[in-house]
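Note to self: the last two entries modelled the partners one at a time, which told us nothing about the interface. This time every component goes in together.
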Amino acid sequence: MGILVFLIGGAIVLEAMTFPRGAEMSGVRNDWYVSPALMPYIIGSGLAIMGIVLFVTGLRASGTAAIVKAFHEVTAGIARVGHPKASTVRFMAVVGVLAVSVFLYIPRVDFVVAAAALLAGLMTMFVFEDELLLRRLVVLWAALAFAFFIFCVSGLHAGATEAYYFASDIVGGVIFIAYVAVAAKLTGDQRQMKIWRLIALSLAVPLVLVPLFKYLLYIPLPREGGIVALMDIVRYDILDPVQE
Amino acid sequence: MQFLSLFGHMVSSIGSLLNNPLAILLLFGSVLLGIIFGALPGLTATLGVALLTTLTYGLNPGPLLLMENPTFLPETGAILFLAAAAMWIIGIFMARQVIKILRIPQAILMPIVGLLCIIGSYSLGNNVFNLYLMVPVGIVAYFLGEMGYPIAPLVIGLILGPMADESLMRALMVSNGSFMPMFTRPVSLMLVVLTVLTVVSQFPFMKALKTRLAGLGKAVPAAACDEAGDSGGAGISASTPEPA
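The predicted structure of the combined assembly is written out below.
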């Protein structure tokens, strides 16, 4: 933890070094103490020093044996990459689904579709408490996320969105349907009813939350694509048409 | 067993507190007085965050609060009255229904909470960067929580950080870039000393020193008693009046 705190402090200091400092701020000559980098420097250096203190304290308390043990745990973890423990799979599933949704889907796909994919992913993975199913669904989710990642980095996403604004929503929708279809098949016949109920719930929740936040609380969404555009039509053209 | 008895005592204390409306009134009254007059009653970390609400809205807690914002107190009173009325209505009509939320399996409830977290962090500044920050901060906070680090200081830092940045820059502009006023003004000096003492007191050498000093404190009276015993108890009998 000491090393982590030190790294975070160091990263803050490095980032602060890119901030304008007194002399050249906005092209106007200024004193050093009006620089926005001042506080990050203080916080970052404080964190780095405290990280070192924490590391040294931990080292003194536990001795070098603790470092050797931690090293062995890390190497054992790396050796188990192909066969992770159940707790590791659960943790990676939660973090992976959230990270993929936040970094990949939500900024590029309509929020309703991205939110439905997130909910469907997490609910189907954890509701049955079946470790084998969880592992299979994690692999399926990762494969579909990788496909979407390739779609984005290959430049297809930019080109398709430029040609047709809702193109990435369609791709996101296809990925969601693919996940749902394969997940339903993997779950087995006995649990079909439950999984379709879960999928209906994962669609219903964003369909309730999005209008609530967008039209009642006036909070815009990260990406308002095809589904939100349809909601706009319902809200502004059908339910409450603007009087000319 | 000691832990269990302590836990039992704690539960019974909380139970007696909840059975005593006057105690609750006094508790919230003290927090409210803290918010209005800037006093610091015995607070938990959560109530400490509540104390900072005035600062986040640009109000200065303390006696000047009522002079600068004469409507603050009646408004707060009215809000509290309305809140009490609303809580009564909700408690009477909705408590039985709302408690059913707890019966929803965690595998369904937690993804929905996660989705609300995503919308919430995006709505803070309508900025996708907030989302990008949410995932790593959540992971780090999870590990910090697992290792027993309190999260409340992190929350307080989040609230006080921008204010500290602004105030430091203003103070340096007033003093032409000199840090000396922090050490020459009594209030700021006291705060600096308290901060340094708080940090230093956590170092192992300081803890060892404290233990040694406590040991000396216990050893001195014991030695004094031994000496008194060696001299035939004259030291005690000389100062103790003879019974009539």
